[in-house]
Please model this.
Amino acid sequence: MTGLEKMKSQILEDAETSARELLADAGKQADAVLALAKEEAEEECRQISRKLEAEIKAIEERAASSCDLQRRKALLAAKQEMISEVLNTAYESMVHASDEEYFEMLRKMLYRFVLAQDGEICFSEADLKRLPKGFEEEIQAIAKEKGGVLKLSGESRKVCGGFVLIYGGIEENCTFEAMFNSRRDELLDQVHSFLFL
Model:
């Protein structure tokens, strides 16, 4: 081998060694980049997973809250329906009470609503036909006891239970319907507390 060939051989050997070292370094760098990329990807996957878990939990909480709200609404509607049925039943029992019970209620209402003035009392046509004997005199006695005068009006009113008082042209609606409507909130509260507390 000549000196030139030896030098050439040495240069090639050095070049191959350098190339192997460069390839080894490049492989190590590539492995490091891949490892870093894998670690970053795994971290990103963990973050996405945590975010999805949080979103799923939020959706579950909203669903549970919505279900609870719907349940409470349904319960409230059922309670309101029951309360309305109780009030309607009470109203109907007053309107359709026996003559004795019905006119006893009217007596109590007279004591409550009659004023110490001169006035008239109007009943429905059906009530006028079934007035108990002596009830007109009872009306006058109650009015006198209160310091007033109350006479039976010649005209009837289209009312369903109760009566209308007229004092000086001003009418006071003392029908069962008017009483129920004026005390509706109070009655609702009483029925609610009776049924549900």
The beta strands are 118-122, 149-152, 162-167, 170-175. The first helix runs from residue 3 to 95. The first strand starts at residue 118 and ends at 122.
